[in-house]
Design a protein that fits this description.
The protein has 297 residues and is of the alpha+beta class. Helix content is 27%, strand content 31%. It contains 8 helices and 16 strands. Strand 8, helix 4 and strand 9 form a beta-alpha-beta unit. The chain is globular. Bound molecules: 1-O-pyrophosphono-5-O-phosphono-alpha-D-ribofuranose and zinc ion (ZN).
């Protein structure tokens, strides 16, 4: 943490694709927050960890200047910073978060006559990701003009400011709403947890590590179910083969019933009725599927 700050700060997108999912993940990792009056700062009530709600494109800068120790941001936003300023100390990607999958893509107006990458030569492409676009154009051997915009890139063609755009696409709704269609993908991206290059102090590192462990557990516990059943011991091999289990199940002996076992297995997703019926056919009974509230490996 900053010398004069006792609490960890995480920068999170304030509105947009990653906003709700990022806060949801932090809540599942056990953080409880109280919002400030302007709702741009969330005070961590049960841990010394606060959240700063900002524009996603500002997150790499906040990490670089050390105003925040951690950030949840699209990988491509981090890459943009790294490419734009290769000599600056870079933020580290601590872990991929499994949500916010999207692609940086070039899109053109529905009515455009452009059909190939080569057709982009000599045209103006509006983007908030100039370094990535420049690198891609260079690799493609296409000479186009890059128009840097910090927001509302999708309306640039309609305003006559550009012939094409290079922006993030997830569901495609933004493109459709602006009568644009995708021409080509420049890169794939997803949300990642990133850390500031200025975080060295041991106490801070320990806190970050603790939070990462919690986030990792929340991620790996997602969708996990616990299956409980009893069965004749002889049915165990056949039952084990049917289980969508993450790891070997625990098998327990039952008092006074040497021929039977009880089994518990962590499964990656809910078991459907068909799977339960198949297990029952093999001799299993007293089947139960439970939601897993928390896991700590
Ligand atoms: C990106 C992009 C589009 C939207 C695309 O915004 O700029 O606005 O996502 O998503 P869709 O294909 O599902 O419609 P981002 O979340 O980065 O927010 P920002 O533009 O405010 O930075
Ligand atoms: Zn953005």
């Amino acid at each position: 943490m900053n010398d004069n700050r006792e609490r960890l700060r995480i920068a999170v997108q304030k509105s947009g694709r990653l906003a709700e999912l990022s806060l949801g993940l932090l809540r599942r990792a056990g953080l409880v927050f109280r919002a400030s009056r302007d709702r741009l700062f969330l005070y961590g009530e049960n841990l010394p960890v606060d959240v700063l709600l900002v524009r996603d494109d500002d997150i790499p800068g906040l990490l670089l200047e050390g105003s925040c120790e951690l950030g949840i941001v699209g990988r491509n936003v981090l890459d943009e910073q790294r490419l734009a300023d290769p000599n600056a100390s870079a933020s580290a990607e601590l872990q991929a978060l499994g949500f916010g999958a999207c692609r940086l893509a070039i899109a053109i107006p529905d009515a455009s006559t452009i059909t190939t990458i080569a057709d982009l030569a000599g045209l103006r492409i509006a983007t908030s990701y100039p370094a990535q676009l420049a690198g891609w154009l260079r690799a493609q051997g296409v000479d186009a003009e890059i128009v840097v915009l910090n927001g509302s890139v999708e309306i640039a063609p309609r305003l006559g400011k550009a012939d094409a755009i290079c922006d993030l696409v997830s569901s495609g709704a933004t493109l459709a709403a602006n009568q644009l269609r995708e021409l080509v993908t420049v890169m794939q991206s997803e949300a990642v947890l990133a850390s500031s290059p200025h975080t060295h102090n041991a106490a801070t590192m320990a806190q970050i590590e603790r939070l990462c462990m919690r986030i990792g557990s929340a991620l790996s516990g997602e969708g996990v179910r616990l299956l409980l059943l009893q069965a004749p011991r002889t049915a165990l091999p056949a039952i084990t083969r049917l289980l969508p289990a993450r790891e070997l199940p625990s098998v327990l002996s039952l008092d006074g019933r040497p021929d039977d076992i009880a089994l518990q297995a962590l499964c990656n997703h809910a078991l459907d009725w068909q799977q339960l019926e198949d297990l029952k056919r093999l001799g299993a009974h007293s089947l139960m599927v439970l939601n897993v509230e928390r896991m700590l490996a």
